[in-house]
Amino acid sequence: MKGKTVRLASKVNRDNSKEYWYFEYGRKSGERIASNLFTYISPASREQRKHNKEISGLLNTELASKILDLAAGRSPFLINARRQTNFLKYFEDWVKTHSPKGNRHAMGCIRVFKEFINKGSGHPRYIFLQQRLYTLSGLWFPAVSILL
Fold first, then answer.
1. Comparing C-alpha atoms, which of 18, 13, 11, 7 is closest to residue 62?
2. How many CA atoms lie within 13 A of 84 on its CB side?
3. Which DSSP string do the residues of 86-99 spell out, in sequence order?
């Protein structure tokens, strides 16, 4: 993402009372990330003015953080090289890095899951799992047949 930058942008709601803020990495789809924060356009009370000041500070610190992340080479998008193409491989890698030392529970889960997939019976749970993983194949994980 060399040369990329992030900027703070906003959209006004329909009744022109609030401004919703988002971070814009570009104009294409998926390049605008919501901050889930809003400010009042014309604050009517002291609480609303205080809210606007707090949100302004939060937005500025978050923007600075995102700019530093971009400068360090970290991006808000998952790079294709880091995506796992195989759910079992992803799960095994996750267990190796995140399971506590001496805890074999997660490794046992992987073993039982592999046995379950390799059976390939007409069991309703197997059919459900096969259909579910097939629907996920468009997003992150391939179909069960590729897992074997």
1. 7
2. 13
3. -HHHHHHHHHHHHS
Runs of H (alpha helix) within 72-138: 87-98, 105-119, 124-136
Whether 129 and 143 have beta carbons less than 8 Å apart is answered as no
Task: Find how far residue 107's CA is from the centre of its chain.
Answer: 25
13 membership: H or E segment, kind and range: none
Tell me how far CA of residue 111 lies from CA of 2, 43, 67, 78, 133, in angstroms: 42, 59, 43, 28, 18
Tokens of 4: 């990329």
Q: And the tokens for 115?
A: 């046995």
Instruction: Report phi then psi at 37, rounded to 5.
Output: -125, 150
Domain boundaries, the chain: 7-71, 80-147
Alpha-carbon gap, residue 39 to 10, rounded angstroms: 10
Please write the tens of the pLDDT for every residue from 1-55: 455 788 999 999 999 999 999 999 888 877 888 899 999 999 999 999 999 999 9
The model's pTM: 0.51
Based on C-alpha coordinates, what's the Rg of the chain?
Answer: 23
